[in-house]
Amino acid sequence: QVQLVESGGGLVQPGGSLRLSCAASGFTFSRYGMSWYRQAPGKEREWVATIASADASYVDSVKGRFTISRDNAKNTVYLQMNSLKPEDTAVYYCRVVQGLRVYWGQGTQVTVSS
Predict the structure, then answer these.
(1) What whole-number percentage of the chain has pLDDT above 90?
(2) Backbone φ, ψ for residue 88 (5° rounding)
(3) Is 26 helix (H, G, I), strand (E, B) or coil?
(4) Are the beta carbons of 35 and 46 closer than 8 angstroms?
(5) Parallel, antiparallel, or unpaired for β 56-58 and 66-71?
(6) What angle do CA 53, 23, 20 make, to 5 degrees?
(7) What residue spans of the chain are helical by DSSP H?
(8) What's the longest Cα–Cα distance across the chain?
(9) What pLDDT, on a 0 to 100 scale, did the predictor assign at position 54?
(10) Residue 11: beta bridge partners?
(11) What angle do CA 104, 52, 7 make, to 5 degrees?
């Protein structure tokens, strides 16, 4: 079955960097676009970035700071996060959509604080 496992979260100071990973299994990874979402305390889950085969798109608030990438040989999607701000604090999830089915990972916590 489809499994998505995120890792790489943690506590980082403002201005710092983190790289999140999402290891996928149970489907042909290279055939699907992959997305990152995040959910801050008390807020709804929001879309962060998506990567298809080569094209990437981002929410305005992270443009120029975050980079989404993928390694199809490793069935992994990444989110490189630079110049982190306290407002980036959230649980980060990866997501894949297959037809009418939406699959989520368990999430990884990112906390940006001094």
Answers:
(1) 98
(2) -85, -5
(3) coil
(4) no
(5) unpaired
(6) 85
(7) none
(8) 42
(9) 75
(10) 111
(11) 40
